[in-house]
Amino acid sequence: MPESSIEKTVAAAEQDGLRFLLRVRLVVLAAVALWLIMNYAPLRMALGLLTVTAFALSGVVQYLLGRRWGRPVFWAGVFTVLEVALLVIAVLAPFTFPEDWPPQMQLRLVTVFYLFIYVAGTVLSYSPSLVVWTGALTAVAWGVGHHVMLRLPGTVTAHGPLIDTPGLSPTGSLALYLDPRFVSDTAWRTETVLLLLLTLVLAAAVARSRSLLRRQVADHLARANLARYFSPNVVDVLASAGPSETAARQQRVAVLFADVRGFTTISESIGAVRTMAFLQGFHERVTHVIFEHGGTLEKYIGDAVMATFGTPSSGPDDASRALRCAVTLAAETSRWSAERVVRGELPVEIGIGAHYGEAVVGSIGDGQRLDYLVIGDTVNVSSRLERLTREIDALIVVTDELVTQVRAEGTAADGLLNRFTRRGEVRVAGRDQPVTVWTVERDASDAQR
């Protein structure tokens, strides 16, 4: 599985996450600004709005730098240093207090929750490293701010819970706690531990989300690879099937072979490079027609192709779809040939053989490599019929078994059987019993070309 494709998808998810984070940040900041306007006096409101504006500008600038120069998570990490410092200052600075109140009273407010909201927001970035970086930086900055508060003149504190402080009665502990200059060392430690635990949980959640994204991308790429060989409905079956559902078994299928007539002459006249371009054009058209009719592209064999209908699981109209595919493929090749003639290139003629019967279908191989194959007499007869088109100069040759099954399916292939003529029994190589065939003759214009 291409690792580069997965990494590109994860990087794109990070970019989308940071874009989403910016949008959420602007909405949250708008809500905070509205709260400030409704609840604070003009001077304090202005200081708060200035801080909100700074955070908004920081988010926009770091996002634009990430878009312009790449590495968006790096730029987010750089600006996190400035934002955390600004946030801690905004939480600890006594902007909202009267001048005669001690600054230590700022720790009594619930503004510390802004730290938790800021760290929680990084989960939208889809980057575990940014979550860890932001959480750790916030915890360190909060510790520095707490240390500054402890060193302010007049600060009183107690190391450990007040209720357990030696020499303090419950009344003394309450009086110390209610002192406006009291700074709780225990509260700081609790807040720091909670910040780090929140960071750990969020980083684990983001890491799990990235792991799930990688798995989804790998599944998508696997389905894309399957889609290069199978029609979409077959891809769904193979992608979701268990070992028992793909085990080799015998079932009735329709098999189609198509081959370019005179390919050796064409390749000799146009050279190797143009031969590869020719084959690519042929394969593209054949694949489109096969998938359009719900068939399975089994394999390319040089200028030939093998397709099956009714694999991996049988359907109610397998034979009818095979017949429609054969007629459509003949018409598409005729149109392509006419286009080539107009351009002065060689025309293209194909032979198509199809048969319906029992075949062995399923995964075959060992524990290291499995191939999904369709093998058996039905496949061999179809291949021989495609070769028979050259001997009897027919465009399409199908067996009576296929025609009978088409009629049994009740559709009569939408009248396509009217184009076929019963040719009677023929013998094909490798088979003792003769095969009754129906054919579509070549147009006179095709034969003339």
Fold blueprint:
Elements: H1 3-39, H2 42-69, H3 72-92, H4 113-121, H5 128-150, E1 156-158, H6 170-178, E2 182-184, H7 185-227, H8 232-240, E3 249-260, H9 263-292, E4 296-301, E5 304-309, H10 318-342, E6 350-365, E7 370-375, H11 377-391, E8 394-399, H12 400-408, E9 421-426, E10 435-441, H13 444-448
Parallel strand pairs: 1-2, 6-8
Antiparallel strand pairs: 3-5, 3-6, 4-5, 6-7, 8-10, 9-10
Helix pairs in contact: 1-2, 1-7, 2-3, 3-5, 4-7, 5-7, 7-8, 9-10, 10-12
Summarize the structure.
By secondary structure, the chain is α+β, with helices and mostly antiparallel strands. The chain has 2 domains: 3-225, no CATH class; 243-448, 2-Layer Sandwich (Alpha-Beta Plaits), CATH 3.30.70. The protein has 13 helices and 10 strands.
The major beta sheet can be summarized as: 8 strands, mixed
Mean pLDDT: 82
Number of contiguous helices: 13
Beta-strand segment tally: 10
Percentage of residues assigned to helices: 55-70%
> Which structural class is indicated by helix and strand composition?
alpha+beta
Shape: elongated
Distance between the termini: 46 Å
What is the CA-based Rg, rounded? 38 Å
SSE sequence, one letter per element: HHHHHEHEHHEHEEHEEHEHEEH
Number of domains: 2
Strand content: 15-25%
| Low-confidence spans | 444-449
Question: What are the main properties of this structure?
Answer:
449 residues; alpha+beta; Alpha-Beta Plaits; 2 domains; eight-stranded mixed sheet; two-stranded parallel ribbon; 13 helices; 10 strands; elongated; disordered C terminus
